Amino acid sequence: MIRTLAASTLLLLGTALIATSAVGLIRLPDVYHRMNSVAKAASLGVSCVLLGVLLLIPGWRTAVVVLAAVGLQLFTAPIGGYALARAAYRAGAPLAPITRYDELGGRTGEGGDESARDPV
After folding, report:
1. CB of 10 within 8 A of CB of 52?
2. Alpha-carbon distances of 55 from 11, 52, 74, 81, rounded to whole Å
3. Could you tell me if 116 and 107 are in contact, meaning their C-beta atoms sit under 8 angstroms apart?
4. Among 23, 76, 83, 101, which residue has the least CB neighbours within 10 Å?
């Protein structure tokens, strides 16, 4: 009974996080905000859903598969989101009008004029 309740709570929480990520993907103003929404909320949502499944279907095999999937999800989703946002920046995707300043300021780490870089 308690295990089913905990699993249901994790499944609902994960589903809510994934839904929040989907709403952020639609409503946020630019690609950088969208990447952040998807990388954070969706990876935590999938992890919660998988942990809920582990509580519903206990066993060694399920535990190994779920823990491997959660570990890979938490490791790869933020890196993928970062890589996509970096590619969008290099491709010249515009910033939202509410953005106050661009911290990179055109410096993307590519070769070329090293004097243009910040010395710090």
Report:
1. yes
2. 10, 5, 19, 29
3. yes
4. 101
- Which of these, 54, 44, 46, 34, lies nearest to 96 by C-alpha position? 34
Structure tokens of 108? 């993307």
Q: Which of 97, 115, 117 is nearest to 106 (CA)?
A: 117
Please indicate, yes or no, whether the overall pTM of this predicted structure exceeds 0.90: no
Q: What whole-number distance in Å separates Cα of residue 77 and Cα of residue 46?
A: 10
Average the pLDDT over 83-100 and give the result: 86
What is the Cα 82 distance to its own chain's centre?
Answer: 9
Question: Minimal CA–CA distance to 2: which of 56, 45, 49, 54?
Answer: 56
Q: What are phi and psi of 2, to 5 degrees?
A: -70, -40
pLDDT tens sequence across 70-79: 999 999 998 9
Q: Which residue has the tokens 């709570």?
A: 9
Beta-sheet strands, E only, within the chain: none
Helix (H, G, I), strand (E, B) or coil at 58: coil
72 burial (CB, 10 Å; 0-12 / 13-18 / 19+) is exposed
